[in-house]
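Record 1 of the preview.
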Amino acid sequence: MHAQIGNSPAQNNRLAAEIHEAISAVFARHGMLAENHGTANPSPVPVPYFVPIPEAVRLGGISRRTIYRLADAGRIILRKNGHRVLVDTRSLRRAVAALPPQ
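->
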């Protein structure tokens, strides 16, 4: 037996379509196909080795201040390119994965 989300099957179908569209938009933003999510051979998503701080904030889902705190603690690698500060994406992934669960 399935739980009902809406009051009618039509509402459930509409909600399911909206959820599917939202998930597809997220995957599209990251260059992935929603149909390949969770499969054995998902589409590779090219991720640059270094990104500017604003992009690291978006990718990591953490604040600018947290990025600098993690860098001060030696958990994220920062590089300077002219006036721009770049974040090593591999170290960002490791640092975010090591954050305590909520």
